[in-house]
Write a structure and sequence with these properties.
The protein has eleven helices and seven strands. The protein is an alpha/beta fold. Strands 1-3-2-4-5-6-7 form a seven-stranded mixed sheet, with helices on both faces. Helix 2 (83-96) packs across helix 3. The two termini are 34 Å apart. The relative contact order is 0.17. The structure holds D-malate (MLT). D-malate binds at residues 22-23, 108-109, 204, 231, 257.
């Protein structure tokens, strides 16, 4: 599978941090981080991962060649964007920008991509930030549910997902007190391309178990989690913190899954402290 050229933001000068968005979002979720870190001596690269945002036209057809021949129906040959595809796209973007090493920060699906990146390119990873993510692979039930979601969004679009997921993505306090954040998250979901989202769901279902990688990660790592995240709870974060040697954990109060949007000040301070410790 060849790497895909991604749409991206590139702001600031200094040590590089690469921000990898979650599902089904795009690079606009990092606006507060891009503004803050580029103003504080960092170069911030934020791509739209393959199939999302302005990279939604970059989907690559059918990887499952055993199941799929060109003449078969699209449903029989689902497009799958693997976490490894996304990580290789990020490495290709760094090549294009002549960036050798960067701190890699991923939220949720972006965290899975970060796991693949540090596994494939450990010497190019100066630091690792794992926010609202987890190491274990999906179980059978979770895989089935992803396939159902992929089929549903291909049939009906993103509408149903937005309504169902907001109460899990955002803490009760965010829902009650931050209407702009709520609207922003809803709009990001609604403008996601169903084909890109479905391909990523299938890629997440196919992702490997990263648990065995954890003791081998020697890169300094910051694990972040929202105290009220029902999708990737604090126990998932503690699991990673306990197994990655040079790691620390930041639990963010009054936040659920979208910690960087719900509590940007706290998120940015934790990230700033971490980056300061590795550069
Ligand atoms: C995300 O926010 O990226 C998703 O919740 C990841 C997932 O579905 O595992």
């Amino acid at each position: 599978m060849t790497a895909t050229k991604l749409a991206f933001d590139d702001f600031g000068k200094g040590p590089v941090i690469v921000l990898l968005h979650g599902y089904p979002f795009d690079r606009s979720m990092w606006r507060e981080q891009i503004d803050s870190f580029s103003a504080h001596g960092y170069r911030v690269i934020a791509p739209d991962l393959r199939g999302f945002g302005e990279s939604s036209d970059k989907l690559q057809p059918v990887v499952d060649v055993d199941r799929c021949e060109p003449q078969r129906q699209a449903e029989a040959c689902p497009t799958v964007t693997t976490m490894e595809d996304m990580a290789r796209d990020v490495a290709a973007l760094m090549d294009e920008l002549e960036i050798d090493r960067a701190a890699i920060c991923g939220l949720s699906m972006g965290g899975y991509v970060a796991f693949e990146f540090v596994h494939l390119f450990p010497s190019r990873t100066s630091g690792l930030v794992l926010a609202g993510t987890r190491a274990p692979a999906d179980n059978d039930e979770e895989r089935q549910s992803r396939e159902q979601q992929a089929q549903r969004i291909l049939a009906e679009g993103m509408n149903g997902i937005a309504a169902a997921s907001l109460p899990k993505l955002l803490a009760p306090r965010t829902l009650a007190e931050q209407p702009k954040v709520v609207a922003r998250v809803r709009e990001m979901i609604l403008r996601a391309d169903p084909h890109g989202a479905a391909a990523a769901q299938r890629g997440m279902a196919a992702r490997r178990d990263y648990s065995d990688d954890l003791p081998d990660i020697s890169t300094p790592t910051l694990v972040m989690v929202g105290r009220e995240d029902p999708i990737r709870p604090v126990s998932d974060a503690e699991f990673m913190r306990d197994r990655i040697r040079k790691s620390r954990l930041e639990i963010i109060e009054d936040a659920a899954h979208m910690t960087n949007l719900e509590q940007p000040g706290v998120f940015n301070q934790a990230l700033m402290d971490f980056l300061g410790s590795i550069h």
